[in-house]
Amino acid sequence: MIEIEKWALAAMLALFYSVICWFLFRRRGAATITSDIVVAYASQSGRAHLLATKTAEAFTGAASLCALNQLSAEDVCGIRTLYVVASTYGEGEPPDNGAAFSSVVQQLQPNALSALEFAILGLGDSHYPEFCAFAKSLYGTLHARGATPLCTLLEMDAANPRLEQQVLTQWQRQLQAGDGVFSFKAADQLVHPTRQRAAICERRLLNPGSPGAPMYFLSLSVNQGAVSYQAGDIIEIFPKNNASSYESILAQLEIGGESLTDTQGGKRTATEIAATRDLYRVSLPSLNNKTDNLKWLNNLPELAPRQYSIASAGNNKSLEIVVRQHIADNGTLGVASGFLTEHTSLGDELEFCIKQNIEFHSPDADKPLILIGNGSGIAGLRAHLKHRACSGGAPCWLLYGERDPQADRPFAGELTEWLACGVLEQLDCVFSRDPTHPEYVQDRMRANADLLEHWLQRDACILVCGSRLGMGEGVHSVLEDILGLKTVARMQAEGRYRRDVY
Ligand SMILES: Cc1cc2nc3c(=O)[nH]c(=O)nc-3n(C[C@H](O)[C@H](O)[C@H](O)COP(=O)(O)OP(=O)(O)OC[C@H]3O[C@@H](n4cnc5c(N)ncnc54)[C@H](O)[C@@H]3O)c2cc1C
Ligand SMILES: Cc1cc2nc3c(=O)[nH]c(=O)nc-3n(C[C@H](O)[C@H](O)[C@H](O)COP(=O)(O)O)c2cc1C
Prior knowledge:
Layout: H1 3-27, E1 37-42, H2 47-57, E2 63-67, H3 73-78, E3 81-87, H4 101-106, E4 117-124, H5 133-144, E5 148-149, E6 154-157, H6 161-177, H7 184-191, E7 196-205, E8 215-222, E9 234-238, H8 243-253, E10 259-261, E11 267-269, H9 270-276, H10 290-298, E12 306-309, E13 318-324, H11 335-341, E14 349-355, E15 369-374, H12 378-391, E16 396-402, H13 412-421, E17 424-431, H14 441-447, H15 449-457, E18 461-466, H16 468-483, H17 485-494, E19 497-501
Parallel strand pairs: 1-2, 1-3, 3-4, 4-5, 4-6, 15-16, 15-18, 16-17, 18-19
Antiparallel strand pairs: 7-8, 7-14, 8-13, 9-12, 9-14, 10-11
Helix pairs in contact: 6-7, 8-9, 14-16, 16-17
The protein binds flavin-adenine dinucleotide and flavin mononucleotide (FMN).
Domain Flavodoxin-like: 37-176
Pfam family, one: NAD_binding_1
InterPro entries: FAD-bd_FR_type, Flavdoxin-like, Flavodoxin/NO_synth, Flavoprot_Pyr_Nucl_cyt_Rdtase, Flavoprotein-like_sf, FNR_nucleotide-bd, OxRdtase_FAD/NAD-bd, Riboflavin_synthase-like_b-brl
């Protein structure tokens, strides 16, 4: 073979290899669409994902289930019916696993989706100004490309469980019209999950002397039976108001010890009811008879449960959390963080339920983990470390950021042990108020870009937990700088980059 033929052959082989690699690479993280009915979810903390799973089950094998980001332009053009369950996050933003889809659809010709029928169930919370914003924008985007809506946008409002149930019934009817049999009972668990009771059995300040707000470790022991959860899951705690926040209201209403049947059907005193009602900026009514005053109180909405990333794993009798006090400008403590850290005593009971957070569950044990977080985000990261420590698996790298190198070292003893026994292969704790070397986790990531890429070549997954603003955004943009926008989006679609940020 003459020299030029050798070069031509080598070039052809290289081209063939690149095409194969590109194809394999491109399809990783893509959806497996095997039917013309598709149920897609965009979910940050698992609720929309679970509802989408129940929706797909309604079609007993005839529907494909995937994250919205996994759908390509070709996929969406080939589908007959698309059901979407989409939550909204941040300030009216899409969840991570739905963020890329709108631009995929926007690139299509105006009538490209004229053969597509769709229905959207939006999940949101009307306490946020941009209620269900992502579901609304998705509805508009699909409609603008010629797709036909099967019904108006259905909006589930987490602030109003009674209405949520009605919307779920409308969704059920919609699926029935498409021959789906939707198990309302199973989905209803997501609206009214069974509450369990636990007692606070340990409470410890994690950061004495910190320039930041106090952060506590709490251990909760389950009173009856067991609790089922895994690393990545979230506990929803039903807090109670501190007496100081409702005593003046009761005094003005001239009620207190009187009892009445509350909205859940039990007999409770006005004081007990006031402890569980959302008194945020309520204006007192101009009522003056006790019965009306009691009715007004009873009809106030219940306090919303507050979410905490579970910090433990591998124990079904107890669970652990980390709670940072929320302190308002006037010095008052937030309802739940005050309830959990100051207004209860050891042994006191509380009500909770577990929120399965599929989006933040552990990847396969053979995948190394790059765990990144700050502040109370140590909770979700510790759960994954505990899980690896109990069940084994590839090693982890923890990048954790706090303020003060002396005071802000939660779980320092445990982390040192995990470093010694190999659960942790690398530990980077950085401090924004370090007098000699102030740093954020995203700065340390940038400084260690080569190492990060090396871990990713070892098939590592990235898990981020803690503040969405500042840390979460900073980490995301450094990842995009180091790896490129497309790689980061692909890693999210593949579940190799997961976030529990709030
Ligand atoms: C997925 C997730 C995981 C989390 N994990 C953790 C964790 O591990 N550790 C941790 O410490 N925190 C965590 N949080 C935050 C936690 O859920 C609470 O938001 C935090 O503890 C403050 O709650 P609070 O009841 O003390 O404050 P609140 O009393 O809720 O006060 C907070 C702010 O909300 C305002 N507000 C109060 N009530 C209302 C209302 N009805 N409508 C509108 N605004 C209102 C208040 O004025 C105040 O500005 C997590 C949040 C999420 C979403
Ligand atoms: C940090 C955070 C930000 C949120 N932002 C919004 C919002 O802007 N608009 C809205 O309607 N709901 C918002 N929500 C409420 C969620 O959409 C709602 O809780 C939903 O049920 C979550 O579903 P998921 O678990 O599938 O992500 C927000 C919730 C959290 C925790």
